[in-house]
Amino acid sequence: MPQTKKSNLKKLNGNLFILSAPSGAGKTTLCKALLERFPNIVYSVSYTTRQPRGTEKNGTDYFFIEKEAFEKKLKQDYWAEWANVHGHFYGTSREFLDDYLAGGRDILLDIDVQGTRQILDHYPHSVTIFVMPPSLEALRSRLESRATDTVEVIERRLSDARKEIEQHHIYRHVIINEKLEEAIDLLSGIVAAYRSEM
User: What gap in Å lies between CA 87 and CA 144, rounded to an integer?
Assistant: First the structure.
């Protein structure tokens, strides 16, 4: 296990639930449904250096931060996980996670496979859940039905999905999202089981 500067390799008082999925697999819908069923779970809002889109609000959708400030915090080991995506930085505050977990609160983190690997270096007791589409053909159909992406973007998303699915073995739990209500029930059952152990 990689060494870290923090002492939080021990299990903290709260559960850290990590949900990952390829684009189009239904992760956002599942996160919203889970938070409706468990309203006292804290949703971890990521930081980003990109500009807000549409109706996005600071502190709700993302914490919007200047690139220089993000890089400064990077040198201070502030981020529990971070990534550079298409020229924009995204990150999760280590302080945010530590404070809520130490206080006995459960946290839901919606991040990709790369971010999950980083989080597990610091929080090995995280409950990791990977959401898979029934098939890549079904995923293609979902992406095309959105009618929001070009053919090129869809092909890139499918290529990324293949790479992410190949790494699903690093997750404790895998949910195949074929029927949404069943997937919500499975996800809720996993979360409820860990919460009852506390």
Answer: 26
User: Which residue from 179, 185, 175 is spatially nearest to 19, judged by alpha carbons?
Assistant: 175
- What digits encode the pLDDT tens for the residues 49-85? 999 988 889 998 899 999 999 999 999 999 999 998 8
Predicted structure pTM score: 0.85
Q: Which CATH class is domain 16-196?
A: alpha beta
In b/e form, how buried is each residue of 46-72, taking b as 16+ CB within 10 angstroms? Answer: bbbbbeeeeeeeeeeebeebeeeebee
The torsion angles phi and psi of 172, rounded to 5 degrees, stand at -70, -35
Q: Which tokens sit at 88?
A: 């924009």
**Rounded CA separation 48/129 (Å):** 23
45 vs 36: CA distance, rounded Å: 16
Nearest CA to 114 among 160, 67, 69? 160
Among 94, 91, 98, smallest CA distance to 66 is for 91
For residue 162, the SS3 value is helix
